[in-house]
Amino acid sequence: MAHEGSFFDLRPPSVDKLLQTDRIESACLRYGRSLVTDAVRDVLASFREARNSGSAIGQDHSIKLIVDEVERLLSNQAQPSLRAVFNLTGTVLHTNLGRAPMPEEAIRAVAMVTRGASNLEFDLEKGRRGDRDSHIESLICKLTGAEAATVVNNNAAAVLLVLNALALRKEVQVSRGELVEIGGSFRIPDIMARAGCKLREVGTTNRTHLKDYAEAVTARTALLMSVHTSNYEVTGFTASVPQAELAELAHQHDLPYVVDLGSGMLVETKQFGLPHEPTPQEAIADGADLVTFSGDKLLGGPQAGLIVGRADLIAKIKKNPLKRALRLDKMTIAALEAVLRLYLDPDRLAEKLPSLRALMRTRSEICDLANAILPKVAAALGAAASVRIIELDSQIGSGAQPTEILPSAGLAIEPVGGKRGRGARLKSLTSAFRSLPIPVIGRVKDNAFILDLRCLEACEDFLDQLERLTVP
Ligand SMILES: *Cc1c(COP(=O)(O)O)cnc(C)c1O
Fold first, then answer.
1. Is the pLDDT higher at 250 or at 186?
2. 100, 183, 389, 430: least CB-packed within 10 angstroms?
3. Domains of the chain with CATH codes
4. Does the CB atom of residue 399 touch ligand 1 within 6 A?
């Protein structure tokens, strides 16, 4: 067994020599010999490179230093790339941070169907092949009052599929005020083109009237469509056509009327103290033949796109080959079924659904939380930064009610020191929080790192890891 000498040498030790040290041997037990050998080679190569470029670190080739580096590299590599973070951005349904957190019921359901085989496409009653949509279709119909329903990978896929199934090589009328772009390059005109249909723009950006639609309908029209302008609001001199009037016009021409709700919600959000969010029930009551909405926006479930409406249209959609390409996997179906079941008991929804729970927290509750954790955060930062409690405005996120704000509170952390180098200190502060075992994501505003505490639930985990915070 080689000793961990602390000698200086112009030449780094050999791979074999390093592999014989106690620490590297125990690393092999933990990570496997193959990964460890690769890491040793990589670290030796970087030391050699440093020596050749004459840097100071390149002069010390003690085994200890090299083994430290190998262990650091292995531990970094062992971290999964996709992992949990604390979303303290103040945007509850943050698309970049995975949107809706899942309720325990959904997590258990996913674990149950992934551990082994399931009746994904098997009818247990009849003992023959079944349909994967069957696990959720009747639930969705019960909750929305729709005749039929189907589900795909996300709402973008839902819109694509509806258009391709019902309007291939035909025209679709959409108001110019509704040609939205959702983040991540989902643009209605582009989706139309990819779905193989022709967008027929109607009206103007700020005003569209019923007669604009009526004049635009031709023999080539396949359907009329409304798109919820989820991430912006047109104000001032505006006019748009109510759903019920558009539905009537479509039906006069024997055309389906389709509504892309974007977020959508299955229950009245006002009862939870939130702004009203359009529901598929309302659209159906107004005469919509099909409605599409997201599973992971206000609904609070997994990424999915729900399509509800007339049975004959849903049947046509299900037969489209794209449906097979866009179908949900069993994990998502399990999670979505569990979340939809929570809606059967609306009285307990706010308690069970984490996204709704976060959206309903009051400023005073969040302030209490801020007061409770402030001393520990201040202690972890020491002399490096100051912390104070501030009032904040959170957002729902994911395009739901973009102009509405939710009164919130949180911590403002400011690096100590004068103006010079302030930007750099703020940068290393945010990076230190991102380097924690469960990275903490906040936002930077007015020279401070802001943590909105609306979404902080696992408080112990948050505080426990603060002892590992290293602010330079
Ligand atoms: C969010 C949104 C979409 C896309 O939904 P995803 O579930 O993110 O694919 C489509 N249309 C509207 C109006 C939206 O708000």
1. 250
2. 183
3. 15-78 (no CATH), 86-95+358-468 (3.90.1150.110), 104-352 (3.40.640.10)
4. yes
